[in-house]
């Protein structure tokens, strides 16, 4: 597969065209940002870990019946994926209160929910990814009602699969963010990445944080945490 011109560079990834109009190559960087780019840094080896973890999880999710953009891992940092238009919604599922939920609603971090919650942010850096509801998403024409229903169904199915999968590996899946894309033929597929950048992972025994919160909160041991969580997959 020929790598052609770069069409996008985000905070953590670059995207390149290929000679197939339906496929693009994602290239994962070690760059890390938080708080809408205000905090910047490098997490050495993160790109490799996020690429490999995301690919492994997406293959498992495909097998569990959730369509994804994944096609083929090309190298440590590069993956061939289906070209999609990203639906400008960040879909967040939470099993335990943490982060912005704890802050916004005054709930102690670590408080478990009786059932998972879902929320949407409008993916728009200029606006700071504001929290929106489904009616806002429809008013803003970010997706159709049918697409939102499908996205919710897939997101909860991802949670059901991942919660059990990580618990078998001694990890509590606290919360995570997903993005979905629309293929040229209109299908909704899971896109972007599933990684320690986009999930909160706590060690089930020690409750130690094994994700990007160590970077966001200046806790130290960031690289060690990424290596530890990746090691749980093998
Ligand atoms: P939050 O508690 O800060 O809203 O984060 C919820 C989840 O979403 C957490 O697992 C981290 C992830 N996340 C992203 O992937 N990207 C983001 O820009 C933010 C703010 C959170």
Keywords, separated by commas or semicolons:
single chain, 234 residues, alpha+beta, 7-stranded antiparallel sheet, 5-stranded antiparallel sheet, globular, binds thymidine-5'-phosphate
Structural notes for this entry:
The structure is a single chain. By secondary structure, the protein is of the alpha+beta class. It has helices at 46-63, 99-105, 134-139, 145-167, 213-216, 222-231; strands at residues 3-9, 13-18, 23-28, 31-34, 39-42, 70-73, 78-82, 85-86, 89-96, 112-122, 131-132, 171-182, 188-191, 199-203. Strands 8, 9, 10, 11, 12, 13 and 14 form a seven-stranded antiparallel sheet that branches. A five-stranded antiparallel sheet has the order 1-2-3-7-6. It is globular. The structure holds thymidine-5'-phosphate (TMP).
Mean pLDDT: 98
Task: Give the helix tally.
Answer: 6
* Rg measurement, Å: 17 Å
Task: Give me the count of strands.
Answer: 14
Distance between termini? 28 Å
Shape annotation? globular
Given the helix and strand composition, which structural class is it?
alpha+beta
What is the H/E string? EEEEEHEEEEHEEHHEEEHH
- Poorly predicted runs are none
Give the % helix: 25-40%
Task: Please indicate the percent range of residues in DSSP E strands (runs of 2 or more).
Answer: 25-35%
Ligand roster = thymidine-5'-phosphate
